[in-house]
Amino acid sequence: MTPGEYNRAADEFSDRIYRFVLKSMGDPGRAEDVVQDCYEKLWVNVTEIDFSKARSWLFTTAYNRMIDILRREKRVICEEEFSVEVQYSDGYSDLNEVLHRCLEKLPENWRSVILLRDYEGYSYEEIASVTGQTDSQVKINIYRGRLALRSMIGKMEAVV
Question: CA 10, CA 93: separation in Å to the nearest integer?
């Protein structure tokens, strides 16, 4: 990868990586640090990485860095925390806010695959390579995460 391609990768992918990490971690400062670490590692390995694989490499690096940080903090989410329905008032119409609050309650492995699939548009195979899971495990985690979201949100008529 040339320095020009590196700059292009920074322009094209940094916002998407930041959004992915921010939605997963919920802390803008730590999300910025993860993105910066990714681009620092990309610069160190700039001669070894082809531009066509830069996006996948950056998302994989961001995901692994994020998991390292979360493990270091020993952040544990119990099933009881996300099985409770989100409370919303009658006539509440901001479905996007409700969805984001529910996403925050999901375990990290479910939230990450849902964000990569539904927000970033990755295929199952790409998600598997980013997260290090098998294709089957990715599909299972997406399914379980969506079921949990459905149960948290409840009936759509009550939200809309």
Answer: 36
Q: What is the dihedral of CA 120, 123, 127, 129, to 10 degrees?
A: -130
Fold category of 79-160 in CATH: Arc Repressor Mutant, subunit A (1.10.10)
Q: Which two tokens stand for residue 17?
A: 């990586």
- Quick one: average pLDDT of 119-139? 89
4 close to 12: Cβ distance less than 8 angstroms: no
**Residue entry with tokens 């830069």:** 54
Contacts of residue 55, defined as CB under 8 A and 6 or more positions apart, other chains included, come to 9, 12, 13
Token pair in block for residue 26: 């919920």
Q: What is the structure's pLDDT at 155?
A: 57
Q: Residue 85: exposed, middle, or buried by beta-carbon count in 10 A (0-12, 13-18, 19+)? A: exposed
pTM beyond 0.70, yes or no: no
Tens of pLDDT, residue by residue over 66-125, are: 888 877 776 444 444 444 444 555 555 567 777 788 888 888 888 889 988 988 888 999
Domain 1-75 belongs to what topology? Rna Polymerase Sigma Factor; Chain: A (1.10.1740)
Mean pLDDT of 39-48: 90
The CATH 1.10.1740.10 portion of the chain extends over 1-75
